Amino acid sequence: MFRNTMPRYEVLSADAMQVLEGGWRRLISEVGVEFASDRALELFRAAGQRVEDQTVFLDPDFVLEQVAKAPREFDVTARNPAHSIHIGGESMAFGAVYGPPFVREGEVRRDATMDDFRNFSELSQSFDVLDSAGGVICEPNDTPLDSRHLDMTYTLQTLTDKVYMGNVVSEVNAADTIAMGSILFGGRDVIEAAPVTISLINCNSPLRWDDRMLESMFEYVQAAQPVVLTPFILMGAMSPVTIPAALVQQITEALSGIALSQLIRPGAPVIFGSFLSNIDMQSGSPCFGTPESGVGLLCTGQIARRFGLPFRSGGGLTSSQVPDAQAGYEALMTLLPTFLAGANWVMHSAGWLEGGLVAGYEKFVIDVQLVEMLQAEFTPLEIDEASLAFDAHVEVGHGGHFLGAMHTMERFRTCFQRPFLSNSENYERWSRKGAQDTAARAGTIWRAKLEEYQQPPLDDAIRTELQEYVIRRRAELGD
Q: Which of 44, 62, 341, 360 is in Cβ range 3.0-4.6 Å of 104 for a Cys bridge?
């Protein structure tokens, strides 16, 4: 995985941070946060917090006491130890797109299927720059709704040997994910000692945690599996239109969820989540890759570090319907601040199209290329005597060229980052080879990757036990 040792880009002054501090303290204590869970309300009530109906009015100092119990950094175990990840500090881990019900393959936009889910899992396994396939890489609409989480989890566990995300649609789905993780890694006690999944718990912004998310959260936190407590904010719709107001709401929602996690299990690993962008004020449509979302992302990193928490944000987000220039520049507009802010867990790193409605095969490849290039760009420059190449100047002299110099010959294979997707051939050669644009080249690459894919090995006894669990639970769920 990638370690981002470059300086963080911080945009908030000390005075600005103080204003935001006063804002979230007032919002969390005077307006409060709604929790649609009797278990959550009882925990807050027992902890001395004021509860009226389903709204909890939280003491800000109490919240900070709970937040302080969460670890600043932690590890997540993959079944291949070489793919285990560290969350927090300088570490950045990247996962594929999450949640689209549709896919785009070339010119075709259609419902996602289980075959697509398997394809994207294999692609995630095949690209080293990705640390995880994620969770719901796409929604397999051709499988039964009540049991598809079993097939998705089994696919992630068997077609990849990287960290995977847990299913959060319901308490039942979360419990199944934990049970299957226990089978894969050798027991519930094993995964509680060393977590194996990360799960996304979204706030129903503004200021409401719904019952399904909370029930899933209880399951994962009780099993010591990390959860990403994420406000889902589109400014102008789920928050006021100003960035400072959205940041105050984001802090309030995230910290209230983190406080609950620590009441459930003190010391449970959590991630301060952020999904912050804006809507088009003319159409009401969500917008991604905007300057406002980039600024919000940079601010979020600074805020999360203030609270001593690892954070999730960023990705290759775009509103574009196809993998075109807009898709590329909007993805970069989000990925660049992702690196500048040093996000620790990056969802939607590859494949996001059409505001998250579509998982795109070609866009997947384009995003992987972007992440790979940014990792190279954010690798600190090594400066020493050898890199100054004084001997090369002596060898070449005045007015010569360095193509055949010994310094060049010793380094030409690795001296520059070599994009696998870009084309720098002259026009005539590019034309003779088919005049393919970026999307067409990306299509060739993902198909070749699937042909070359090799499934990572897994013990037959474990595979059988997982298959038997899926079959039994599918029957119990009525599918």
A: 360
